[in-house]
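Sync notes, pocket subgroup
Present: LS, DG
LS reminded everyone that the earlier model was apo-only. Rerun requested with zinc ion included. Inputs:
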Amino acid sequence: MKTSTDVTMPTSLKPIFPNECVVCCSETFDTAKITQNSQNPISVFFMPILWLFRWSRVEFPLCRNCMFRFYFQRWGRWILCCALIAIAFPIIAPYYREWSPLFRKIAIGVSCFVAMIPYVLFEVFVPRSFNTTSYPKTTTYEFASWDLALQFYALNTQRYPKAEITIS
Ligand SMILES: [Zn+2]
């Protein structure tokens, strides 16, 4: 089992990718885009309307052969995650029926998170080929390929020598 290699850089910078497919690592000039939301997840939890704002798109290299695999993984995991929440929520919610609305919301959120721990571990130890996690100030670009992450890191530190870019 291996975890992803993550490169974190300021959200305001446009990332530069090596011309290598994020899935198979072969040279490609084809690209794809994914959307990301850089809202603070805790703020969204308490004020879901915030989720409508701060969307952006990231363009990255993805060869035609890997397109289906990439999106199948991305949407497949999203559907799995939603399905687990849909199962966990009706089981958990009745336990907190007597609680005040705010504490009920927190308790249900924490309980759902605990119920999701196996899924979270699966996401950590079977990383997606490529994914991003965005916050108001920084965005993390997560690569399953260590080599690709290293190239991405080198390209961006070269392009933005003054920016705070880290790899882990
Ligand atoms: Zn590929």
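DG: The longest strand covers residues 31-37.
LS: The mean pLDDT is 91.
Action: DG to write up.
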